[in-house]
Specification:
The complex is a heterodimer of chains A (about 400) and B (about 90).
Chain A lengths: L3 H5 L3 E4 L2 H5 L12 H15 L2 H4 L2 H9 L2 H12 L4 E4 L2 E5 L7 H12 L2 E5 L6 H14 L10 E5 L4 H10 L2 E5 L2 H8 L8 E5 L3 E7 H4 L4 H11 L11 E7 L3 H19 L4 H16 L5 E3 L6 E4 L16 E6 L14 E7 L3 H10 L7 E4 L9 E2 L2 E2 H5 E4 L2
Parallel strand pairs in A: 3-4, 3-6, 4-5, 6-7, 8-9, 8-13, 9-12, 11-12, 13-14
Antiparallel strand pairs in A: 1-5, 2-17, 10-11, 15-16
Helix pairs in contact in A: 3-5, 3-8, 12-13
Chain B lengths: L15 H12 L20 H15 L5 H6 L3 H10 L5
Helix pairs in contact in B: 1-2
Classes of the chains: A alpha/beta (about 400), B mainly alpha (about 90).
Chain lengths: ~400, ~90
């Protein structure tokens, strides 16, 4: 990079250094799912799984579990079923989102497995999870994985268009996670003609419940699973359901039981910030001002449950994190279609067969719904994300 | 893999039973006494995080790759013995 010296003071490297970026054009790409990368991740998995510090963070442990050899080899087998040669695209620049601490590592995983030289910008907020993972990466790089050094850099820098432009001008793949504004800002920065871009803008997610099936379940177990999907990430993740859609018979009894069990758990576990109460009230007023006729059920600020709205696509313009749910009555799954627009990512299911939801969305040509899972699994890590096969999309084929 | 990352229970001199017990005591940080009675969520440390540590330890100790169904089914010390059998590991 020409402006190396200008930038060096403005970028701090948590892993790797400028050399990784500066030499990226000359560093050979790796084959997809190379043994080097698999064993690097396995060593990293061991380091984190046996770290007492990491164990305090379920999201770190979940990622560490996902990158263990047994799990990655499954992904590798899927890739190698295609007999054609698959290699990295080159230098991959990743812009990680500010709302999910471990997301940078997830993006990095697919990118390295695809065979790319990978540079990730982590959010400026100093999450402990980021530090713990970067410490582990550095420790593994220093104990037998020197060969991985040219392939990985983790950096932190502020909103700096000059650095973004310079890194973008060199990349072969740019991966941007973030709100719509972040994605739009990067879209305005050119990448080379051969480079490709994968963007992960803001999405919303839903939960569908078969009421009579739910009434057969243990309410506290379901509450815990739903809590994991929502409150655990402050309902900030794209995959956190914003609306709960009630189907089938016994709806009234089911929703009373559901929200009571959820509230009991939230009361015990969730530390709400005062600003969240203000934001929820504000979102509710905006919804009312927009012509909806929302009713608020429940009596405290931990759990806002908004009734009286139909499944209307505009509803999601008024979504709010921190325990704020649109509670929607539906006579059939099809009633939820307006919410399954192109912004809809995950549908989580309670007592509903995920395959049925997927078939329904496909049969109606819905523009959204990239993933349908059982409740409690919206945060599961997967190599298929937002409709992309991540390793395939980040690599290229040599057709011979 | 560098030596530092090898799990202790891979040492050749141990019997499968010893290795198996070791996985529980290390992953769940529990004493060896009473380990046979352990069940998922029966002790505080065998939560979802402890479960992942345990599975990783077992895969490592016996050089196996567990299927998702078996990972979910691993609900007790006893149950785990039957699951290990599927992977050709006699405890």
């Amino acid at each position: 990079m020409q402006q190396d010296s200008d930038f060096q003071g403005r970028v701090s490297f948590l892993c790797g250094d400028w050399q990784v970026v500066a030499l990226s054009g000359r560093t050979p790409v790796l084959p997809a799912c190379s043994e080097l990368v698999l064993s690097f991740f396995d060593a990293l998995s061991h380091t984190l799984m046996s770290s007492r510090e990491a164990r305090a963070y379920p999201d770190v442990v979940t990622w560490a579990f996902w990158i263990r050899r047994a799990s990655l080899e499954k992904a590798a087998r899927r890739i190698s079923k295609d007999a054609r040669i698959r290699v990295g695209r080159g230098f991959a620049l990743h812009i990680a989102p500010s709302n999910v601490p471990v997301n940078f590592a997830v993006s990095m995983t697919s990118s390295l497995l695809a065979g790319n030289i990978t540079a990730v910008r982590v959010p400026s907020r100093e999450f402990e999870q980021v530090r713990i993972i970067c410490d582990a990466i550095n420790s593994v790089l220093g104990s037998g994985f020197e060969a991985m050094r040219p392939y990985l850099a983790v950096m932190r820098y502020g909103h700096d268009d000059a650095i973004n432009a310079s890194l973008s001008s060199m990349c072969d793949l740019r991966v941007v996670w973030g709100g719509d504004a972040t994605v739009a800002a990067f879209r305005a920065i050119a990448i080379p003609p051969r480079a490709i871009e994968m963007d992960f803008p803001d999405r919303h997610s839903l939960c569908v419940v078969d009421s009579s099936e739910y009434l057969k379940m243990d309410p506290s177990q379901v509450a815990l699973l739903f809590y994991t999907d929502t409150y655990y990430s402050d309902q900030n993740a794209c995959s956190s359901p914003r609306a709960v859609i009630w189907l089938g018979s016994g709806r009234e009894e089911a929703r009373e039981r559901f929200y009571k069990a959820l509230h009991d758990l939230v009361f015990k576990r969730y530390a709400m910030q005062p600003i969240q109460a203000v934001d929820k009230l504000n979102a509710f007023c905006e919804l009312a001002a927009a012509g909806f006729r929302p009713l608020r059920a429940g009596s405290d600020n931990l759990l806002w449950r908004i009734e009286g709205c139909r499944a209307d696509a505009r509803l999601m313009d008024f979504k709010q994190p921190g325990g704020y749910f649109f509670d929607i009555d539906a006579s059939s799954l099809e009633d939820a279609l307006p919410l399954m627009d192109k912004r809809c990512q995950t549908v989580s299911c309670i007592g509903v067969d995920p395959a049925e939801v997927a078939r329904m969305a496909a049969a109606h040509g819905a523009r959204g719904v990239d993933r349908v899972v059982a409740v409690g699994h919206t945060m599961d890590l997967s190599f298929t994300w937002d409709g992309f096969d991540m390793i395939e999309s980040m690599s290229r084929i040599i057709d011979a | 893999m560098p030596e530092a990352f090898r799990h202790e229970s891979r040492k050749k001199s141990m019997t499968n039973k010893e290795k198996y017990i070791n996985c529980f005591t290390q992953a769940l940080e529990v004493p060896a006494e009473g380990v046979e009675k352990l069940e998922y969520q029966g002790v505080e440390s065998w939560d979802s995080v402890g479960h992942m540590s345990l599975v990783a330890a077992l895969e490592d100790a016996f050089g196996i790759q567990m299927d998702t169904d078996d990972i979910v089914d691993l609900s007790s010390f006893e149950k785990g013995i039957a699951i290990m059998k599927k992977y050709g590991v006699e405890i």
